Amino acid sequence: MPTKWNECELVSSKEIAPQTRLFTIKLLGDDVFSFKAGQFITFDLPVHEKRLYRWKSYSLANAPDNTNLFELCIVKNEGGLGTTYLFDQIIPGDKLTFKGPEGSFILPEYKPETLCFICTGTGIAPFRSMLWDICQHPINATAIRVIFGTRKMENVLFLDEWRELIKLLPDFQLHIALSRDEELPLNKEKNIFFYKGYVHQIYQHQKLFDSKEPIFYLCGWRNMIDEAQKNLLNLGFPSSHIQTELYG
Ligand SMILES: Cc1cc2nc3c(=O)[nH]c(=O)nc-3n(C[C@H](O)[C@H](O)[C@H](O)COP(=O)(O)OP(=O)(O)OC[C@H]3O[C@@H](n4cnc5c(N)ncnc54)[C@H](O)[C@@H]3O)c2cc1C
Q1: Which atom of ligand 1 is nearest the CA belonging to 61?
Q2: Is the peptide bond preceding residue 238 cis, with omega within 30 degrees of 0?
Q3: pTM
């Protein structure tokens, strides 16, 4: 079947951390934008003659809500063709072309006892979508753990939303690994835990899962995904319990 390309418009883009923006996009026309939490879209950006360099994929960062609006959480890659265009060359009202939604990085049909989301940077985007979706359509996962790696406190994305989710979801914990901050925040918040270093030290503590069989979702760039996947297999978790979304 030929690819269906859609026209959309930039509604707004807002800085949510250094070099990181939340883009709100509107599908043009009367269609409702229908997708599953965890899926992504692909822009065809006018940045190169070869389509390999023009097509840039982004995870949908909001929960499906039966409107024609959607959100993307994007980090600027200095010198990158696609993100330079999105950050520096378009303004609200400008039109873009995209295909999608696509992808099978979605929540399972059945009710897992424990969901463990592991990500770095804007790899948090599909999990933001899934978590708000779970709030609207509870799936009875007993426990949800988000393990989020970034450089510094200023790079932690959506912290206010995680605080809200902690109140809404019955057993939700956020574990944040800061690789470049010398001092950790003095944390007294319920169910938010900070660590120095990388995400890998965190999921290796089995206590995190109360011995229930977790389903892992990994999202981000190759180094983190490769290492986490290798470690989880070494820990004895079956590959069928590990889903990945590789950003590049
Ligand atoms: C399914 C899918 C979903 C994606 N979703 C998102 C998303 O929600 N948010 C998002 O920010 N990106 C996402 N990406 C990555 C995105 O598609 C682009 O690759 C990214 O924006 C860089 O594009 P660019 O044209 O600016 O840089 P390019 O010129 O394409 O970048 C060149 C190189 O830099 C590497 N690179 C780029 N950014 C980083 C980074 N932050 N860390 C490490 N290496 C990097 C790339 O792997 C590539 O090798 C996704 C990718 C895929 C395949």
Answers
A1: 8
A2: no
A3: 0.95
What H or E segment, with its residue span, contains residue 136? helix 125-136
Q: Give the whole-angstrom CA distance, residue 17 versus residue 11.
A: 19
Torsional class of 158: left (φ above 0), alpha (ψ -120 to 50), beta (otherwise): left
pLDDT along the chain (248 residues), means of 10: 88 98 96 95 97 96 96 97 98 98 94 92 98 85 91 97 94 95 81 95 83 89 98 95 97
Which amino acid residue places its CA nearest to atom 25 of ligand 1? Answer: 82
Q: Which residue among 77, 84, 130, 158 is best mutated to probe the pocket of ligand 1, counting the most ligand atoms within 8 A of its Cβ?
A: 77
Domains plus CATH for the chain? 6-102 (2.40.30.10), 114-246 (3.40.50.80)
Nearest-CA residue for ligand 1 atom 35 is: 248
